[in-house]
TrEMBL record:
Name of the protein this chain belongs to: Armadillo-type protein
InterPro entries hit by this protein: ARM-like, ARM-type_fold
Domain of life of the native organism: Eukaryota
Gene source species: Lentinula raphanica
């Protein structure tokens, strides 16, 4: 309703005003709350909102810049929008903000999360992911994964890592592993309390992405040596006590993918670490969770035929739609891809 009555234009004018930073900040806040669809995002972009947001950096108020970066993230509703915004040089703006908020002596989790969120939203293709990496986002993300104890920062750091990878994106997988992402992911269950489990779901999401982006002996060895497999099971054990079904599903699907493409060594490690017992325990709850856990059990303990059969029964929302020879090749390798899970997560509470 606010968008259709052209109130958004008034809000954009308020963003331009020099009355006060507080008024500009609230106007940007209203605009990002409006932006819930590709249609609205396109309308706001046509109204020159991007240039207005980029100009906020000159004001020097970190709160205003952070919410502008967050608003840029919400504008990315599809691949075409991400490409268009990248052509407007938003990647240097976003990564620069993430670096500034990371290096600030008075770090604010809200400011850091805004940058991480925008990176995750923008990384909708291998080309854009490489552009983000070239701008220097990887070292910043890995720094937070390896050092932070803030649950929101860890959640968005792990989520951003996963979003930087796509099918056959072996270059990005190598860049991330060389930067030390495996160690950062492995530490997540050890620094999160049972009340802050969202980051564990992001751990599962990212392992899924690694499994499909590029699976080789080196990746397998790096993840295992860093303790990522043990961390997945520890995360599932921790999350099992809470009714966080989305987290349960993400972790179970990660184990399922590892069991399917990881080879006998990974499957033996999952079994010896008590993975099957944990999966059976978690499967006793929600029906959707049970499906994911049972699929993971089949992937780990079944033979090649039962693993294939199990893989073609996931929920429709988890299929990455592909065509032609790419589809044939993916089916042959049982590679399933996932829609961008970060689309269903909000960080609106950060600035409320």
């Amino acid at each position: 309703m606010i968008y259709r009555t052209n109130t958004a234009l008034t809000l954009i004018e308020l963003c331009k005003s020099t009355i006060s930073n507080e008024i500009s900040l609230l106007a940007v806040w209203c605009l990002l709350r409006i932006c819930r669809s590709a249609e609205v995002a396109q309308g706001l972009i046509k109204s020159n909102i991007v240039s207005v947001l980029l100009r906020q950096n000159a004001i020097g108020d970190m709160h205003l810049v952070s919410i502008s970066v967050y608003c840029i993230g919400t504008l990315v509703q599809n691949d075409a929008t991400a490409d268009f915004l990248a052509a407007m040089d938003i990647i240097p703006f976003v990564v620069s903000h993430l670096r500034q908020s990371t290096e600030s002596p008075r770090q604010s989790p809200d400011h850091i999360c805004a940058g991480l969120y925008a990176v995750a939203r923008i990384a909708r293709s291998i080309k854009l992911a490489k552009a983000l990496a070239k701008a220097g986002c990887v070292e910043l993300i890995i720094h937070h994964l390896n050092t932070s104890t803030d649950p929101n920062i860890l959640h968005w750091s792990a989520r951003a890592v996963g979003c930087l990878m796509r099918p056959n994106s072996s270059d990005m997988a190598k860049i991330l592993l060389d930067a030390g992402v495996a160690q950062g992911l492995a530490r997540l269950p050890t620094v999160l309390s049972s009340e802050n489990l969202q980051a564990l779901g992001s751990l599962g999401f990212t392992v899924q992405r690694f499994s499909c982006a590029e699976w080789s002996g080196k990746i397998r060895q790096t993840l295992v040596e860093a303790g990522v497999v043990d961390s997945l099971l520890a995360a599932l054990r921790t999350a099992a006590e809470e009714p966080c079904y989305d987290v349960h599903i993400e972790l179970a699907l990660a184990i399922s993918l590892l069991g399917d493409v990881g080879g006998s060594a990974i499957r033996k490690e999952i079994v010896s670490a008590g993975g099957i017992t944990i999966l059976k325990s978690v499967a006793n709850g929600n029906a959707e969770v049970a499906k994911a856990c049972n699929m993971a059990i089949t992937s780990v303990t079944g033979n090649i035929w039962s693993r294939n059969a199990g893989w073609f029964q996931p929920r429709q929302r988890q299929l990455w739609l592909i065509t032609g020879m790419e589809a044939v090749r993916s089916i042959n390798h049982r590679v399933l891809w996932y829609f961008d899970s970060y689309d269903i997560y909000d960080i609106y509470a950060l600035f409320s």
